[in-house]
Amino acid sequence: MARLAQTAGLTDVQQEILSTVRDFVDKEIIPVATELEHRDEYPQQIVDGLKELGLFGLMIPEEYGGLGESLLTYALCVEEIARGWMSVSGIINTHFIVAYMLKQHGTQEQKDHFLPRMAAGDIRGAFSMSEPGLGSDVSAITSKAVRDGEEYVLNGQKMWLTNGGTSSLVAVLVRSDEGHPEGTAPHKSMTTFLIEKEPGFGEVRPGLTIPGKIDKMGYKGVDTTELIMDGLRLPADRVLGGVTGRGFYQMMDGVEVGRVNVAARGCGVAQRAFELGVSYAQQRHTFGKPIAQHQAIQFKLAEMATKVEAAHAMMVNAARKKDSGERNDLEAGMAKYLASEYCKEVVEDAFRIHGGYGFSKEYEIERLYREAPMLLIGEGTAEIQKMIIGRRLLEEYRFQG
What we know:
Elements (H helix, E strand, L loop, with lengths): L11 H28 L4 H10 L17 H14 L1 H20 L2 H12 L5 E4 L15 E5 L2 E12 L6 E7 L14 E7 L5 E4 L2 E3 L13 E12 L11 H37 L1 E2 L2 E2 L4 H29 L5 H26 L9 H14 L4 H15 L5
Parallel strand pairs: 1-4
Antiparallel strand pairs: 2-3, 3-8, 4-5, 6-7, 7-8, 9-10
Helix pairs in contact: 1-3, 3-4, 3-6, 3-7, 4-5, 4-6, 6-7, 6-8, 6-9, 7-8, 8-9, 8-10
């Protein structure tokens, strides 16, 4: 696919990294992805390959053993990985949100302690905001941390942790009323805690349980879990940044990176769906000619390619905005919204092009058809993105009358 989703202005280093990742995806991920996905099997060999390539340290500064690359480089790598298998990109995403939050908001001790091992892939990150009863309403968090001497005691239940079982470090957002009198705005009484744990399921440290994998329609292979805290004790130095009450802002900063990631995943899945659709359309014959020669199919391919191109451009713009140091919640929200919606549409069009065969598990498009819906809700639903976009537009275009 030399024509679609190209990115202008990349350095030689960026191009070399992307070429290496693309080659890895074509050789090591695409040939085995559907089989592993059908078995809901964690892609350990693929993850080991990513570790060997140094991708777990892609955005971590060189002083901590990482490659020190930009969000744009990371997003373009995610796009390539998602083109092979979206679940693998999810393993990378949560890790980098935690690494980014540590880099931006952690104390020096926290950076020194975690980032070198995260860059090497020896520590894998996960993060958690959601709970069973709140969905997108982060202000309704009920999980709580209470100070007890030099420790905090955490209680509550969290939901939808990607890498919940395989991770060894979880950044968890909870309510902490210490120093925040009654009536304080909910987002000002939240704190992010860094929880170290053993990988696996069951009681992974005293007071912390990962019950098991949630069975999902798609997005298989990667483990999605609950997290239960029951008298979990953490030292005070595991408050991200060392100060309570800043967790909401820290998480939202990380989620902006996550939204660029979800946009990149949408771009990657849409690209793969287009590749499958345009290839099948040239092989399948009806009425004496390949279906690609029928005008109806050409129109569909034209729409699909245009959506792939538009989503990629918005994703790149959002990443570059964040890299420049500017606020990018508007651009990230737009990119996530458009890329996830276009991904769903492109995948469905490729599914339609395949006809009855698209419904067969023998064809890759069946897997993509089950994976695309996750992008519609991950890192905030379309409705949440529209709220963010609308509010930011009103800030930018405030009526001056």
